[in-house]
Write the structure tokens for this entry.
Amino acid sequence: MRREGARLHLSGTLDRIAATTAWPQAMAAVAGARVLDVTAVDAVDSAGLAMLVALAARMDDVHVEGAPRGMTELLAAYRLTPTLAFDDGR
């Protein structure tokens, strides 16, 4: 994970182990970020998605770039929008 301006870059596989390990660094880096860049993430599971949702909730006007393997299906299963917000159907 690295921060570049308003962009927070994540890479590798974002699974339970990676999310747990990256959480402290992510929390330290999220303030002021506006873009979650997951273009270098090769796969995400539900724990990784939970971390992304928590990060997005702490960002103003968030934009998510990239769609790693598994993300589209998880967004649909949890009824999340492309910006990782809950889609209440309205």
